[in-house]
Amino acid sequence: MPNVTLNVIRGNPETGASPEKFEVPYEDGMSLLDAIFWIREHRDPSLSVRYSCRSANACKECSAIVDGKAGYLCSIRAVPDSKVNIAPLAARPWIKDLATDLE
To answer: What is the pTM of this model?
Structure first.
């Protein structure tokens, strides 16, 4: 079964936080946000990420830096046997892990 490797910056990126590595089983059609949810359910429930699409039917809260470019975790598809670097948005005040202040 293929995996997706996520290297997630969990600390404040301004202080030079190092990434934490997670191996996630790949499923057809999964997004990077789905992979984050898998990590929260199966490996580390303390991993913080902003999203509202599943609870408030809102969008644009799961912004992050993915492989050096800003994007929405819900719309970026995972690729089997790939490695992805995910960090919080640099231009926003950091809250925790991938969560930043969007106001």
So the answer is: 0.89
